[in-house]
Amino acid sequence: MLGSDSRPRFLPGRRRGLIALVSALCAAALAATLLATNASAGTEKRPAAKSTVAGKTVGYFTNWGVYQRNYHVKNIETSGSADKLTHINYAFGNVQGGKCTVGDSYADYEKAYSADQSVDGKADTWDQPLRGNFNQLLKLKEKHPNLKVLWSFGGWTWSGGFGEAAKNPEAFAESCYNLLNDSRWKGLFDGIDIDWEYPNACGLSCDTSGRDAFAKVLKALRGKFGDKLVTAAITADASKDGKMDATDYKAAAQYVDWYLPMTYDYFGAWDAKGPTAPHSPLTTYDGIPKELFNTKASIAKLMLMGVPMNKMLLGMGFYGRGWSGVSKAEPGGTASGPAPGKYEQGIEDYKVLKERCPATGKVAGTAYAHCGDQWWSYDTPETVGTKSDWAAEQGLGGTFFWELSGDTPDGELIKSIR
After folding, report:
1. How confident is the model over 78-106, as a mean pLDDT?
2. What 3-state DSSP class applies to 347?
3. Contacts from 409-413 at CB under 8 Å and sequence distance 24+?
4. pTM > 0.85: yes or no
5. Structurally, what CATH architecture does the domain formed by 12-317+380-416 represent?
């Protein structure tokens, strides 16, 4: 999910708000010191990445989306999303045996596309050396020469392999470099994205590789990939002794072009009885179930740790999370369990929710909806615009979102990113 460039300024009113939150996270003197450090971060020498332009818009494309979701690379073009994107993160590659490996060979480079399914209107042939998403992405890049594609590895399901990779970071980096530069898809990938959930902490499984493992892995990747893009999706858990405290994100930041703090999924129906709460609040609000579980707090804590503002992107979800058995229209209601979703309980695409359960209110910079006994939270074009404005005003490197197939066929959400 951003770059080593710098924005021309912070807008004073917004800056004061973020500084106030940093002060709440730590002593005022430390916050002032941090801000001084951050202000000069653009001039200090980093062995990290090349300078990249501000205002990045990064969207995730999932390889499994070509199945039930019937979302293909061509949809990125026909929706108008390709005109808005600066980068696509292709999710996911796997991490096995300490190496980067292919996640789904059929979807990635074997699936044949007919003329009407293809980006350029030309059908795949049985004997061509490359098909699937990779070939379609190459065609998309031909239409949009400035569009960059990164291969993202890990994710919630496949992060368990990073612990083994951290035992020999150089060998891991070598395997990733070789895979991304395979001659079959030469010229497709402009860099690598690491989605380790979570270093030295717990996600689907628990990692005990140590506080410095993440930085060592990224250092090895930077050393191998040179001036290619190296990015990382990271936790947004700003709570005391939470996931953010388990890893040295400041040390690792020098090796990445940008971080993608996953500033969504703060709340959801894994707490089956509620209380209902928006899954991606921009700010706190009266009655929020957990202190510091909001985007503003996450960004402030990373800044306090010493991560430059221009190396962070603001994350948004193109989906909603919801509960059923809810009678209260506003946040904070009790529930009986997760609301129904097409692919998974408690989660649904924006394109579905906007029709099935339209927004009825806003809180903390995002929207919520109460319909029947269901309660959902999700971003709308209005709140997406507000969030992207906030990111620019704070001097962040841009925005990113999970993921492209959740948007409407005409790209309603991505076109609201300013």
Report:
1. 98
2. strand
3. 409/75, 409/78, 409/79, 409/351, 410/79, 410/80, 411/79, 411/80, 411/81, 411/84, 412/350, 412/351, 412/354, 412/381, 413/316, 413/318, 413/350, 413/379, 413/380, 413/381, 413/384
4. yes
5. Alpha-Beta Barrel (3.20)
Residue 236 has pLDDT above 70, yes or no: yes
Q: Which two tokens stand for residue 187?
A: 């010229």
Specify the amino acid at residue 25.
L
Question: What are 323-367's pLDDT values in tens digits?
Answer: 999 999 999 999 999 999 999 999 999 999 999 999 999 999 999
- For residue 198, whether the previous peptide bond is cis, meaning omega lies within 30 degrees of 0, is yes
Per-residue pLDDT tens over the stretch 146-178: 999 999 999 999 999 999 999 999 999 999 999
For the chain, what are the domain ranges? 12-317+380-416
Please state, for a pLDDT cut of 70, what percent of the chain lies above it: 87
CA dihedral 33, 35, 40, 42 (to 10 degrees): 140
Question: What are phi and psi for residue 154, nearest 5 degrees?
Answer: 110, -110
Active site amino acids? 197
Residue 116, SS3 per DSSP: helix
CB neighbours of 190 closer than 8 A, spacing ≥ 6?
Answer: 87, 148, 149, 150, 228, 229
CB burial class (10 A; 0-12, 13-18, 19+) of residue 142? Answer: exposed
Torsion angle of alpha carbons 152, 154, 158, 163, nearest 10°? 150
What's the rounded Cα separation, in Å, for the pair 260 and 131? 30
Q: List Cβ neighbours of 24 (8 Å cut-off, separation of 6 or more).
A: none
Per-residue confidence (pLDDT) for residue 14, from 0 to 100: 42
**Distance in angstroms (rounded) separating the CA atoms of residues 395 and 403:** 23
Nearest in space to 196 (alpha carbons), one of 256, 269, 148: 256
Q: Is the pLDDT of residue 13 over 80?
A: no
Say which residue the tokens 């001036």 belong to.
Answer: 227
Planar angle of CA 402, 404, 407, nearest 5 degrees: 100
Quickly tell me which residue has 């921009």 as its tokens: 282
**C-alpha separations of 26 from 34, 71, 239, 284, 286 in Å:** 10, 45, 12, 17, 21
